[in-house]
Please model this.
Amino acid sequence: MHKVVFGSLAAVGGSVAIAMVCFYLFHSNATIAAMFLLLGVLLAGTYGSRTAAIAASISATLCLDYYFVPPIKEITIGDPQGWIVLSVFLAVSIIATRLSGRLRLQRDEMEVRQAETEKLHALNRAILLSDGNPHEVNRILVNKCMELFGFDEAALFESRSGEVYRSKQPGAIKEDELRKAARTGAFATIERTTNMPVALGNKIYGGFAYVGEPLAVGLMQSLGNTIAVGLAQLQTQEAANRAEAVRKSEELKSLMIDALAHELKTPLTAIEAAADVLHAGRISDEQRRDLVNVVQQEAKRLRRLMGEAIHLARIEAKRLKLERQAVPAETVIHTAIHSLEGHVQSHQIRVEVAGGSPTLLADPELISQLIKQLLDNAIKYSPAGKPITVAATEESGLVTIMVRDEGPGLTELEQGRVFEKFYRTRRDNASVQGTGMGLAIAREIAEAHGGAIRVESQLGQGCRFTVTLPAAPALVTADSTLR
Model:
């Protein structure tokens, strides 16, 4: 109310000031003064209230009569033409006021629409910049709506998952009303709480509720559509991710079957040939022992291949469960060397462990499997008789296990891909046995423990694989973990 009165007084004062300037300073005639007074009325109608505009029109008419229509400085009209002039001026002023008022309203509406559009755009941008995690996207939707629209509280119900995401717990928003809005597709306002459907076209994705001043119907519909677009994008992305996961799983199965089929041929052929000769029976005892050894070695090779395939399948299925305990690094290293049995006889294995033997907090069986894969890889690619070094050190709560060979080395491209499933280097041929699963398994085991694995190599100078794993707490002793 005070704002309206002040605006009206300002409009009247403006008309008086314009008339006095035209009369005393510029000595203008009635026509020029009327033009300036009409300009003042337009400004009052554009930037002021309707009351201020009407006050400006009336005061401008009176000022024009007082200063410029004879008799001068009197609110009387001696000539009938003066009545016509003042009547026309008042009519023009009022019409101009109405027009300028309409323009002001349109301007205000455009500003409101622009502000609403910017808020919806900011909400949509926040959705697009999210990491795609369903919980993260829904949390962003609720918190961003709170920030942009100044709600006291907000909640989102997603029909697909059946979950409700709230800005605060507990709150004034009732979950049953929120679910009802999603089920019926109807808007409902109870006191200061508004429940609305989140829909796009004829499909309802959930419900949204807020506590605060009610929004315009159009803005509520746009807000519901924007949230629905975000949920639709999320569901589409999830569907695409599931499809990609299925595709990769099928591709992995195909690669695994192909790799195993190729690798199983050699031991199966050797076992079959040895069995045929043994079945014939016309061989010496020494030949029989050699053939039995062949069968045993190839059977162990088959078991190793199947073990790798099972490990990789467990990793892909996310069923790799860790049974962590404190175990000396030297223990798992020697366990891995022993598991290779005859494979290590062609190479000299050097074990270098720092004094006191660093202690890992890890699953002993899986870490032994990791080291075994690195040693097996080094044996395959190192010339017979060349040394292979296994070292373990501890620093800053981390245990580093290093396996170094003197093989042909890797190019930079090969170093970037060597941990991929079923990857074989360009120098791999029939003489180098393997499925390409070993280093992939080693990487997955290291990462499952919260560690990392990397390779450093130069062509002709061998490879150095380094695994970094968490150390066991100092208060846990090795003796207490080997029981």
Notes: The chain has four domains: 2-113, 130-241, 243-316, 325-481. The longest helix spans residues 217-280.
